[in-house]
């Protein structure tokens, strides 16, 4: 039977999402099944950069939608972000070393069929819709997460 | 044999405690045994809101006790807290969606017999006493944590 | 067969590194094999306090090297650091309770043969060299991490 890894991506930080996606891509290369369950701030990673349907949202949902990052490029660093300076420094250091940026790792993970779940409760509270997320994201509840995690050989909360 | 989930709640953030308790409640509904080992800032979740015995404490312990949150309602957001504005926004968005607040999830977990451990070293360093924690919290050391985690099917550090 | 614990230390915070090392030392006392894979900010824990070879580094790498903590004593708190005041308070509270500081737990873990890996990609991006890390740190990639984690009974992302 294939080994499996399950990541609960709670964080919306650039560096932590990078860690999650590097693990996901490496695990796929080792022929593991990989699930990333995006909850709360972690949903920011799988938001489409350019589609907010503001009309149907409450005031808070609109504000929250505008204040939170949309897609991989907008995520801040978890430490030393310094209004984006620290993040720019990191991404240029990655470029110097020919390490691809977060968006490339996300593309890779999608190509390699990493399964992306979007936490139902988080999606509802934040007022997001399926259209605002990457196409293959499946909206799923905590029971779905737990069943997947129970069947996995590695489970991490990131 | 019953499946088990073990959560090490290190964080004292409202959103992360929410994630832990939602997982704990869902796991109980799936008939899993659930342990939450509260360490460091995570102890703030299981502090009683209204009992500080300041007399027996050192100056640092008194200061620390006053500066740290007491119980679920006082926990800040891990991101965008903005001196409480972000958290108020989130809790109102949860209300709009009929999602219960953190304190309700804590009540649920206690009713469903989630096992709460309080990290002995953290309790001692912070100068907390058993009386300042919810009744069922058992003060336990890292060895107790490790044995419980080894017997568990899911272990997460939150 | 010996039980194993694998910790992915991503955080460079004093309190989280403390949690990781307390778990590592306790697990060793229970006769478990323990691996700590230090990635990103987690590398700061295993940096030598006094060896930066600035000559071979790019400008960004030099800046990053100066701005990030060098070794256990320089790590900040994850919360309430207040420019070091919160951390000083915590370390004095630990002293009052005869709890050893982080550096003592690191020494203990090294003596007990906890295996330290340094994430290859992080080391390269940050421009660190083997000489700047504690002697026994082995530079290893995410595949090495995953294989170790798959063989472990407890895996945590800290």
From TrEMBL, chains A, B, C:
Pfam families, per this entry? DrsE_2
Against SUPFAM superfamilies, the record matches this protein to: DsrEFH-like
Protein name (record): Peroxiredoxin family protein
Task: List the InterPro entries.
Answer: DsrE2-like, DsrEFH-like
